[in-house]
Each structure stands twice: as C-alpha cells, then as structure tokens.
Amino acid sequence: MRFRLTPRETSFYDMFSASADNIVTGSKLLMELLGADASARAEIAERMRAAEHAGDDATHAIFHQLNSSFITPFDREDIYNLASSLDDIMDFMEEAVDLVVLYQVEELPKGVEQQIEVLARAAELTAEAMPNLRTMDNLTEYWIEVNRLENQADQIHRKLLAHLFNGKYDAIEVLKLKQIVDVLEEAADAFEHVANTVETIAVKES
Fold first, then answer.
1. I need a labelling partner for 140 at 20 to 30 A (CA). Which of 38, 117, 129, 148 fits?
2. How far apart are the first and last CA of the chain?
3. Residue ranges of domains in the chain
4. pLDDT digit string, tens, across residues 159-172
5. What is the pTM of this model?
C-alpha cells in the first residue's frame, strides 16, 4: 500500500458498499422472479423498480461526493467508472424484470435460471469485495472469479440463443425472449466491468 501524507475522503467506501448491497437485493428479486407466476411478477417488478431507484440515489450520492471532495481515496476517473458500472448492473437487472412483465412472458426458457444464478453469485462477490477497497486486501480472487463467472455467462448465453433459434418458438416469441436473455448477459458484462475497474484501482494503489 502506498503511504500517503494527505487525508482522504473515506465516505466513498461506505457508498460503494451500499450500492453493491443493493445489487444483491436486485439479484434476489431476479431469483424470486424465476419461481413466480404471472400474477406475482408485477409486484416483483415494482420492488425491483424501487431497488433500481435506490441504486440511482446511491450513484448520485457518489457523484455528488466526488464533485465536492478535494481529496479522494483513489483516482476520480476510477471512482466515476466504478459507480457507473455498479449502476449499470442494477439498470440491466431492472430492465430484464420489466421486459418479462411487459412482454407477458408465460415461461422463461430453460437456461435463464443459470444466467440468474451466475448474476446472484457475482452480486455476492461484489458486495463482499467493496469493503476491501479500504485496504486493497483480498481482491485478486474477487476479480479472477468474476471474470470466470462472466465467461460462464457467455457460454450460457450462447446455448440459450441456440435454444431460441431451434424452431420451437415463433418469431415474435424469439424476439421477446432474446431481448431478455441479452439484457441478462449485459448485466454479467457489467459485473466484469466492475471487477476490471477494481483491478485497475488495486494496481494503481499497489
């Protein structure tokens, strides 16, 4: 750890942790969606929307703190990128739930549960990692595992696409389901962006 003579604004650590904890809430709502019937999905979507708004508030708080702080714990650009990528995850998860409700999807294709399980695991790892930004300890395994999970998500996504285009679904249904699985894949990519940003920060601070 590099020795510093100047004080640093430490509230960022708590705000990043709060943002990541909110993502865990979102991932649990995605898991809940899997077992819900059509009548329960609208209520889950409402709770997801509230979680997404909470995520927006957390992101805005970070940006406000960034703009009002003379000294930051690490590079301003990295703080901005980390906050933005965390916000992206929540946006994509909320979009996926909203699309399921709006498109009135009766049954999600087999494999979506695997996508969501990967996202839930990535959310847990991200929430565990954020407090470690204070010391930059025990972060290497985090970004390695999230990158591995993103590769797993890519494989699941490709299999899902192959399944959607096997002729079982009509063209309109394919379009609907493809958009949902694509958004879930974007959420996995956003988790990787967070992990890559954390790696960049750790390397700079080492």
1. 117
2. 5
3. 10-203
4. 999 999 998 899 99
5. 0.92
